[in-house]
Amino acid sequence: MNKRNIILDCDPGHDDAIAIMLAGKSDLINLLGITVVGGNQTLEKTGRNTLNLCQYLDIDVPVCLGSANPLVKILEVCPQIHGESGLDGFDFPDLTIDYHNQNGINFIVETILKSKEKVTVVTTGPMTNLALAIRLEPKIMDNIDEVLLMGGSYTNGNVTPAAEFNIYSDPEAAFIVFNSGLPVKMFGLDVTRKVMVYESVIERMEKLNNKASLLFSKLMKVFNENQYRTFGLEAGPLHDPLPIAYLLDESVVELSWVHCDIDISRGDSYGRTNCDIFDYMKLPKNTFVATKVDVNKYWDIIEQGIKNYN
Ligand code: BDR
Ligand code: CA
Question: Which of 1, 2, 15, 5 is nearest to 166 (CA)?
């Protein structure tokens, strides 16, 4: 089977870390590079976390720094969930690798333009880098097969009642991507809130006893503590690996084809992904939205992803 060419754009982040782990070693994914954005923490920190993860997991791909800030808004980081470092809970060895010497937005443009096969862009942070790449060189859209994103919600948000963190962090960027005409698949809180990293999940992964399982268990313990303190949740929702899991096995979610608008009005619903699930408005459809997730299948995929590091 042909491997899918992907660029992963992220802001690690505990759940981004597991998305990187899943994409970094797979027979089905050709990871062309990782671009980083300011989001869960400042770009300096999310960038360093990405290098640390790649070095520790031996993932040898270009890592490029993209945008430090959202297009219009002021960056609001999330230390309450991801800690001051953006990835609290794991002691990485000293860094000996460095960034690829190219800005992340230019990397996205150049990599997509020169790829012989179409590229899938997966975003697990604010969508700033992809929006800037589209504006910089719209021709890239001819060579993108689809955009998969963790973000949004057609039910409740997690920053405001209306908005989810990644979209809320840069609503204008999401607006550009959702209205670009590119096929967009949205994996939002509606499904990611169902994949909770209960203690039993951590114990299951710990048994695999390799470097990826150690990373998983240490990070998820801190993630859960922070989710409990912040939201009172019994376990944290493991959001970001879901679009990668979908690339590995599409049957892990069910999708609905809907019209979706990003609210950039700066009112109470600023940053909401308004998905017309019931097609009230009869507007042109532009987004596949994940509406169901097979939780057992998801943990099987994560388990296999960890085993790939044996
Ligand atoms: C999203 O917000 C971030 O804190 C996580 O990394 C995830 O991408 C969930 O709302
Ligand atoms: Ca993220």
Answer: 15
Span from the CA of 19 to the centroid of ligand 2 (angstroms): 9
Residues 6+ apart with CB under 8 A from 13: 39, 40, 41, 46, 49, 82, 86, 87, 124, 125, 240
Coil, strand, or helix at residue 242? helix
Radius of gyration of the chain (CA): 18
Q: Structurally, how many domains does the chain consist of?
A: 1
Q: Are strands 273-275 and 260-262 parallel, antiparallel or unpaired?
A: antiparallel
Which residue is closest in CA terms to ligand 1's atom 4?
A: 40
Active site residue 263: no
78 CB near ligand 1 (under 6 Å): yes
The reported pTM is 0.97
DSSP string, 195-220: -B--HHHHHHHHTT-SHHHHHHHHHH
Per-residue pLDDT tens, the chain, 310 aa: give them.
689 999 999 999 999 999 999 999 999 999 999 999 999 999 999 999 999 999 999 999 999 999 999 999 999 999 999 999 999 999 999 999 999 999 999 999 999 999 999 999 999 999 999 999 999 999 999 999 999 999 999 999 999 999 999 999 999 999 999 999 999 999 999 999 999 999 999 999 999 999 999 999 999 999 999 999 999 999 999 999 999 999 999 999 999 999 999 999 999 999 999 999 999 999 999 999 999 999 999 999 999 999 999 9
CATH code of 232's domain: 3.90.245.10
Provide the residue range defining the domain that includes 239.
Answer: 4-307
Q: How far, in Å, from the CA of 23 to the mean position of ligand 1?
A: 17
